[in-house]
């Protein structure tokens, strides 16, 4: 199957398989059975085999799969975020925490620039990343060929910044602002909301 046609859930599970396989590899394991990977991923062996088929990986399910080969097949399909230049807009409490995490814990993630409109933050290195004025968005997005952005501005500014990002050719936005964003079909927006998840958990555990 062409990678553009992979269902979103398959992509999510494949990313999880990759993380699990890297852990197994680190612990010295070289082969894995679909049922083992399924146990770790919390799904079924049939699901694992179906996903592997969808990404075009065929091994021998009876003898087990060679982890190195499976990782190679997965990496050929996934678009590795480690090699992509990413920008972050809104260097407040959350923005700084995210920058610190990536700079110090995940240095292979390439956040090339941060942006803020506060003159006290502009032209400074914050949590290991240079912060620019939002006036420089156009220039830096074009220069670094940026396609991914993390949005940590207040909800009231999120759509206005998103419209600019879309206009500049950004293709994926990870939105932390608690507001649904309108983007064209050519752009993918993922929303992360701790409050929403907490409220959901509170409800679900109440009725358990
Ligand atoms: N998704 C989550 O789970 C989660 C958790 C915490 C906060 N949030 C959200 O993340 C966002 C940031 O929260 P925070 O606590 O860091 O806020 P904050 O006020 O500390 O930081 C916001 C930053 O954005 C900057 N900013 C404002 N308008 C801007 C614009 N037009 N262009 C560029 N920069 C601009 C401000 O100068 C400030 O530095 C808010 O929308 C908040 O609701 C989400």
Nutshell version of this structure?
It is found in: Cytoplasm. With 208 residues, the chain is an alpha/beta fold.
How would you characterize this protein structure?
- By secondary structure, the chain is an alpha/beta fold.
- The protein folds into two domains: 3-76, Winged helix-like DNA-binding domain superfamily/Winged helix DNA-binding domain (Arc Repressor Mutant, subunit A, Orthogonal Bundle); 81-197, 3-Layer(aba) Sandwich (Rossmann fold), CATH 3.40.50.720.
- Helices cover 46% and strands 16% of the residues.
- It contains eight helices and nine strands.
- The strands form two sheets. Strands 5-6-4-3-7-8-9 form a seven-stranded mixed β-sheet, sandwiched between helices. It has a two-stranded antiparallel sheet with strand order 1-2.
- Strand 7 (148-151), helix 7 and strand 8 form a beta-alpha-beta unit.
- Helix 1 (8-26) packs antiparallel against helix 4 (67-77).
- The longest helix is centred in the N-terminal third of the chain and has 19 residues, at 8-26.
- The protein is globular.
- The N and C termini lie far apart (40 Å).
- The structure holds nicotinamide-adenine-dinucleotide (NAD).
- Nicotinamide-adenine-dinucleotide binds next to helix 5, strand 4 and helix 7.
- Modulates transcription in response to changes in cellular NADH/NAD(+) redox state.
- Belongs to the transcriptional regulatory Rex family.
């Amino acid at each position: 199957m062409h990678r553009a046609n992979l269902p979103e859930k398959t992509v999510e599970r494949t990313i999880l398989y990759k993380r699990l396989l890297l852990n197994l590899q680190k612990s010295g394991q070289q082969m894995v059975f679909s049922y083992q990977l399924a146990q770790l991923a919390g799904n079924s062996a049939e699901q694992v085999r179906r996903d592997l088929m969808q990404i075009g990986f065929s091994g021998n399910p009876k003898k087990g799969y060679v982890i190195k080969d499976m990782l190679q097949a997965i990496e050929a399909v996934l678009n590795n975020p480690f090699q992509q230049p990413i920008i972050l807009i809104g260097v407040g409490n959350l923005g700084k925490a995210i920058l610190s995490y990536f700079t110090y814990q995940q240095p292979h993630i390439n956040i090339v620039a941060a942006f803020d409109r506060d003159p006290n933050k502009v032209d400074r290195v914050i949590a290991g990343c240079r912060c620019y004025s939002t006036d420089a968005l156009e220039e830096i997005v074009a220069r670094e060929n940026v396609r991914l952005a993390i949005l940590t501005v207040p909800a009231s500014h999120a759509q206005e910044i998103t419209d600019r990002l879309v206009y500049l050719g950004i293709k994926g936005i990870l939105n932390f602002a608690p507001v649904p964003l309108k983007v064209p079909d050519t752009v993918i927006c993922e929303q992360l909301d701790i409050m929403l998840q907490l409220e959901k958990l509170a409800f679900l555990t109440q009725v358990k």
